[in-house]
Amino acid sequence: MSVELPARVNPLSRALSDAGILAWRSLKRIPRTPDMLIYATIQPIMFVLLFAYVFGNAIPIPGFPGPRAYREFLMSGIFAQTMAFAVASASVGLADDMSKGLIDRFRSLPMARSGVIAGRVIGDLVFNAFVMLIMVICGFIVGWRWHNGIGQALAAFAILLLFAFAMLWVGALIGLSVGGPEVASSAGLIWLFPLTFLSNAFVPTPQLPKALQPVAEWNPISSIVAACRHLFGNPSPFASPDGFPAQHPVWLSLIWCVAIIAVFAPLAVRKYRSATGH
Fold this sequence. Notes:
single chain; mainly alpha
């Protein structure tokens, strides 16, 4: 009597399946913790209202007079900042799982190493897509519009989600490297504030000190913001209008996203392996 052996499971298929299951687990927690959704949406809405109505008349956009020009200039910066701050959700979530011993339980299961982290990243990405939808509605309320058609607008949103995906891998590495969720909360954000404000997100780079202008224009957040403004048809002044960041903002944003993923995704998986001995 012959016994049929189980078919060998493709490692990629297993990793995708594990990631999907854990992503669903991550998303199911949101209805149970509505305060997380409330706080995640309040911060970007506050930034929109604060900058649009308090600083809108104080920060002129070269070549585009009027407060509405600043609001259209502003929204891409708010979008990119919010997607960058996705680092915190991944870092705190994974650090919390580590501190509660949940990762040790996963270690005892026949799961792909990458699936555990990818599940968290995918779940957080879906959550950030919802937050971005709320921000789009808020942007329309304050007067922001896109002018290059729905196709290019969707391309801009796709770049923003790709950037969020890249930053979530950074957050995953931080969450696996620190001692607990409290430390992860600070470690995930403290370096992002100077990176965000030393960019074109809120202030046009021609108005920055000359020594900071090249740094700001090659900043990865600036690249994402400039690509979105280009695709939305919003004002996008540059201190060096003939430079590569000004001439090829979409390509530079894609290069930055791919580079971040290529560096931090393998590092996060390796850190998970060393942290769990898996």
